[in-house]
Design brief:
Chain B: It is a multi-pass membrane protein. The complex is a heterodimer of chains A (about 260) and B (about 350). Chain A is an alpha/beta fold. Chain A is built from nine helices and twelve strands. In chain A, a hairpin with a 2-residue loop joins strand 1 and strand 2. Chain B is mostly helical. Chain B has a domain of about 240 residues: Orthogonal Bundle (ABC transporter involved in vitamin B12 uptake, BtuC). Chain B has a two-stranded antiparallel ribbon with strand order 1-2. In chain B, helix 3 packs antiparallel against helix 11 and helix 12 packs across helix 13. In chain B, about 50% of the residues are buried. At the A-B interface, helix 2 and strand 6 of A face helix 9 and helix 10 of B.
């Protein structure tokens, strides 16, 4: 469970975040949407302690982020960055196994979790492959498995922050990945995910935040946030919003 | 994917290799001893009660010359390889070298000051004179590395890229200062300086050995404790932080261990290149990048490789002796090029 109140973030002379408040609740996925440069990744950086806000504070499990010891925090909070630069020939299971570093759960248990996490990210067939031999999308799924393994099985209290986890994935794996995140949340984890695809956000998220120039334009359910007016104002696109014929969530169609 | 050597097999193989290197290093030289005599004399030196008949000469050569030289070679090779692992981890680049943080060039500067300046100064107490070179080299290495580290810090964070650039700049600066001392040196000191820059295990003595052994032991015990943190660091600094690693203190430890280890090695044996670069690479090719295996295996492989290089240095032009830095560079540089070319595919 992660809470941010009145976050302001300064980068150089520019204010990249202005008065952002949000709370990640157990079992819920909060999607963050916004055009390039709106401050999505800065928000994620501020939420995980990587960037220090000039005002406001972030609390994890009721305690300020700075009060947490590194390992204890890593058992509660996992972060998937947009790109990872790993230049060494680890095997896939070793990369995922790094997620178990903050735990002392024993080799046997770790191996089970690594397999389960790889399975959840639909990457179990990559077992024993060299990380360097993987494609960009496969690497992204391996890193997703790594952060899932870090918080496995994803009970209440676990918080997962994901920065564009689907950016390099094919359509099928965009859905399998977010489905994995969904079941993680259903087991009790609190999730924040930065997305670009409005329809993926509408389908998998419980709440959406629309960011524009570092300000929160809207924070509510997908149906309330994804309106033609809001999308016109923030992204400058003309869209139709209809209901998904089978699933009922809003469907965004470009005009 | 390519099969890896099992850690157990690797450690058994490397231990045998290391024993073989030690044995040959004790036996071979200007006066070669029969291998069996070497073994018996070696065991006697270790306190095993064996009849001494006909072993007096072997024992004398071993105890006075070959054993300190062999131990020096083992320790220098081991710490250079360990520092190579530490730097490649710190810079998250398999082509990084312990020289990157300026420790080698700083030590070279310290040595140049000692060799050239020492002959001007005169009034150095007699008991200290033999240590002057080592102490200056060690201090120079530590000093320049501290400066590089300092330059890389901003707002309580160490920027590894800035450190790398600062290391390059200070290496160039120290190089020009060494050049100045070279220009000012007379013929005799010039020769000493040149040979020191090429590295040698010659003239090993227990007095010069023990500080290095202490450092070797300390680094060899400390770094493996950080093996998992180093693994995480390869993912990236922020990823390592998210995995609970105290990244700033890890970076500090890595730089400190490297400065201490390379400083002590260079102070004892001069500049010996490529061991720190090539050995971790070789081990990674065999057993993968996991630091829990990489660190101890590099220690064994580095020690063995340096002893073999020293054997070449001793035997190639016997009774004359090649500087060992020439041998390691002669083997290491083509190997490095090979890695570069292979890496392109």
């Amino acid at each position: 469970m992660l809470e941010a109140k009145g976050l302001h973030l300064q980068r150089g002379s520019a204010e990249v975040l202005h008065d952002i408040s949000l709370s990640l609740k157990p079992g819920q996925i909060l999607g963050v949407l916004g055009p390039n440069g709106a401050g999505k990744s800065s928000l994620l950086g501020a939420l995980c302690g990587e960037l220090i806000p000039s005002q406001g504070q972030v609390r994890l499990g009721g305690r300020s982020l700075a009060e947490w010891a590194g390992q204890a925090r890593a058992r509660q909070l996992a972060v998937l960055p947009q790109v990872s630069s790993l230049g060494f020939a680890f095997r896939v299971e070793e990369v995922v196994g790094l997620g178990r570093l903050p735990h002392a759960s024993g080799q046997q248990r770790d191996r089970e979790i690594i397999e389960a996490a790889l399975h959840a990210a639909d990457a179990q067939h990559l077992l024993e492959r060299s990380y360097l031999a993987l494609s960009g999308g496969e690497r992204q799924r391996v890193h997703l498995a790594r952060v899932l393994a870090q918080l496995w099985p994803g009970e209440a209290g676990a918080t997962l922050l994901l920065d564009e986890p689907t950016s390099m994935l094919d359509p099928l794996h965009q859905h399998t990945t977010l489905q994995a995140v969904r079941s993680f949340a259903d087991r009790g984890a609190a999730v924040l995910v930065i997305l670009h695809d409005l329809n993926l956000a509408a389908r998998y998220c419980d709440q959406l935040m629309l960011l524009e120039h570092g300000r929160c334009h809207a924070l509510a359910s997908p149906r309330e946030v994804l309106t033609p007016e809001a999308l016109k104002a923030v992204f400058g696109i003309d869209v139709l919003v209809q209901d998904h014929p089978e699933r009922g969530h809003p469907l965004i169609i470009m005009r | 994917m390519k099969q890896r050597v099992q850690p157990r097999t690797l450690f058994i193989g490397l231990s045998l290799l290391c024993l073989l290197a030690v044995w040959l290093s004790l036996a071979l030289g200007p006066v070669s001893l029969p291998l069996l005599d070497t073994l018996r004399a070696g065991l006697r030196l270790l306190g095993v009660p064996i009849a001494a008949d006909g072993l007096e000469q072997a024992e004398l050569i071993l105890g006075q010359i070959r054993l300190p030289r062999t131990l020096l070679g083992l320790a220098v090779g081991a710490v250079l390889a360990l520092s190579g692992v530490a730097m490649q981890g710190l810079f998250r680049n398999p082509l990084a070298d312990p020289g990157l943080v300026g420790v080698a060039s700083g030590a070279a500067l310290g040595a140049a000051i000692a060799i050239v300046g020492g002959s001007w100064l005169g009034g150095i107490p007699e008991w200290f004179a033999p240590y002057l070179l080592s102490v200056c080299a060690f201090a120079g290495g530590l000093g320049v590395t501290a400066l590089v580290y300092r330059l890389g810090r901003r707002d309580g964070q160490t920027n590894v890229a800035t450190m790398l650039l600062a290391g390059i700049a200070l290496t160039a600066l120290a190089g020009s200062a060494v050049g100045l001392f070279t220009y000012l040196a007379d013929d005799a000191t010039l020769r000493t300086l040149t040979f020191w820059n090429l590295g040698s295990l010659n003239g090993a003595s227990y007095a010069r050995l023990w500080p290095l052994l202490v450092v070797t032991l300390a680094v060899a015990l400390w770094l493996p404790r950080r093996a998992q943190a180093l693994n995480a660091l390869l993912l990236g600094e922020s990823e390592a932080r998210h995995l609970g690693v105290e990244v700033e203190s890890l970076k500090r430890e890595l730089v400190f261990c490297t400065a201490l280890a390379v400083g002590a090695a260079v102070a004892a044996a001069g500049l010996i290149g490529f061991i720190g670069l090539v050995v971790p690479h070789l081990v990674r090719l065999l057993a993968g990048p996991d630091h829990r295996v990489l660190l101890p295996a590099s220690l064994l492989a580095g020690g063995s490789l340096l002893l073999f290089a020293d054997l070449v240095a001793r035997l190639a032009l016997a009774p004359a002796e090649l500087p060992i830095g020439i041998v390691t560079a002669f083997i290491g540089a083509p190997f490095f090029l090979l890695l570069l070319l292979k890496g392109r595919h």
